[in-house]
């Protein structure tokens, strides 16, 4: 691990320490590492480095909107290669929330998310996207049954 030192004005240091306490960080170092990861990921996304990602797409929709539930399900089925899982919950008599876990090529995931959020009746959509490196492991998982993704599966390792 590499160490570096920074100097902060007293007021900035106090504000930073208050933020650390508010968010429950164990140390200044962990808070700085977390901020650096977030900023580096944001820079990768702005550059459009492509590659692959894992993502969480969340949105609220009115289930009374004409055929919206069927359209959303249809879009997910059309992109079954990107969709890992979807959680659906009822908020009230009219509104539902869904959170979908996605993985795959970054641009394909973005297009999928945009197509969901653009549907009439979908509100409050947000995509949280994390760049990953694909690893093609050469290992056994140490269990008796075959891996559900077959011998050619990938591991998605978040970039640091």
Describe the protein in words.
- The protein is built from four helices and five strands; from the N terminus they run ααβαββαββ.
- By secondary structure, the chain is of the alpha+beta class.
- It has two domains: 10-47; 52-135, Alpha-Beta Plaits (2-Layer Sandwich).
- It has a five-stranded antiparallel sheet with strand order 2-3-1-4-5.
- The longest helix is centred in the first third of the chain and has 20 residues, at 28-47.
- The protein is globular.
- The model has no long low-confidence stretch (mean pLDDT 86).
Helix coverage percent? 25-40%
Q: What is the strand arrangement across the widest sheet? A: 2-3-1-4-5
CATH topology of the largest domain: the name is Alpha-Beta Plaits
How many structural domains does the protein architecture include? 2
Record field, number of beta strands: 5
- Text of the CATH class of the largest domain: Alpha Beta
Could you give a short account of the major beta sheet? 5 strands, antiparallel
Please tell me the CATH architecture of the largest domain by its name.
2-Layer Sandwich
CATH superfamily membership of the largest domain: ACT-like. Chain A, domain 2
Radius of gyration, in Å, reads 20 Å
**Helix-strand category:** alpha+beta
Described by the principal axes of the CA atoms, the overall outline is globular
Mean pLDDT: 86
Residue windows where pLDDT falls under 50 for at least 5 positions: none
The topology string of helices and strands comes to: HHEHEEHEE
Number of helices: 4
Beta-strand portion reads: 25-35%
Could you give the distance between the termini? 13 Å
